[in-house]
Amino acid sequence: MSESYHFVRHNRTPRTVAILICVYAALASLVILFDAKWWLIALFALATLPALRDVIADTRAGLSIEDGELRWFSGKRSGQLALDEIDHMRFDTRWDLSVRVTAILKSGRKVRLPDEIRPPHRDFEKVLTDRGLKVTRHHFTVF
Fold this sequence. Notes:
membrane; alpha+beta; transmembrane; four-stranded antiparallel sheet; transmembrane helix
């Protein structure tokens, strides 16, 4: 199939902004209502800094399949694989119900795709099978 496929995820979403507003409102209410120590609240606020940086910078992550290659990017990381190098794609459902995607190459090497670049797994599975790639699913493996 010669049709290309593109997926891009932006980190500046209304959901992320709303979560950050709620967290900061909760931290502020702890200071106002319960006279919490500022250093303790600052410690809790540190956990939100990566999400705040992503929202401010509007970082992107995504993948594309075109010209016989699977390409992906996330921040400063990127990668690519030729589709004819891939033996099959393995989808592992984890205990938290997220899905990890690994490309198993014909050489036996495994290339794990970063979670942030992956489109919804059912759509991605259909895109891969439409391009002639074999997809295997494994549910709730321990090892």
